[in-house]
Amino acid sequence: MKTMRDAFFDEVFKLDAMVVTADMGAPALDKFRGTDKYLNVGIAEQNMITVASGLALSGKKVFVYAIMPFATLRCFEVIKSTICAMNLPVTIVGVGAGFSYEDSGPTHHSTEDISVMRSLPNMTILSPSSSGMASLMASIPDTPTYVRLDRETLPEIQRGSSWDVRCPGEGLDYIIPAKTVIITTGNMVHTALKTGFGVMDIYKLKPLNERLLLKHFEGIERVVTLEEHILDGGLGSIIAEFMADNGILKPLKRIGVDKYYYDYGREHLQKLCRLDVESVTKTIQDWVQPPNM
Fold first, then answer.
1. So what's the pLDDT on residue 197?
2. Which of 8, 15, 102, 283 stands 20 to 30 A from 219 (CA)?
3. How far apart, in Å, do the first and last CA atoms of the chain sit?
4. Is there a single domain that holds both residue 138 and residue 248?
């Protein structure tokens, strides 16, 4: 099985597009090196965004690639002024969603990227939950786009008939219908599938497919959001805002990261912030039917 990154860039190589990196290595990038499809700007992520913007203004479709916090937070102002403000066809590809870089501490954890990137007008945000899904996200519209990839190789998921990841696609997949549904994204989809509750995979976080989401909400009694991301401004906030804007009065429970962690090992980190399967299951069970009742 390929990593999300390698599956994604294998498809990008087939396109008439350029890849600009900040001194990042990856097996899938080896085929780009030495061609006119590849440019390494060195460890200079902000310059990477500026160069990509210039290439886009010259008529190129451009993908930029770096570790997620450096591709987003470090470059935020430049992305705002040189990509989103001019609505340029640049795709920002970040690897390392959540605690993917489990051995590098909070400087390399990416638990704020959704909050930050969704604040930018014109920005599309894609969050695949498997390598197969990531490979289908390479062919995307000519608009500013952010693709958040997990570092791990995640297994494929049995999809429902609604699955259409092509952009513009459905943006979400109702994998397991139920009265209590976990709405989640990325690697947390795999955790949610082990809890026994319903699961909805939101793989396009912005723009949200409100029409389809409204349709699926008709049969849901309780909503849980699950994310390996800070709660402020993340998926839980996206769903809470959607519910408020559409007058949906249903119980909502948000589960996510609450602070910075200086421990190591993804499994250990998830247990610390109660994102492991056992903790998530118990949290939801206690919420649905409190122990004292």
1. 97
2. 283
3. 46
4. no
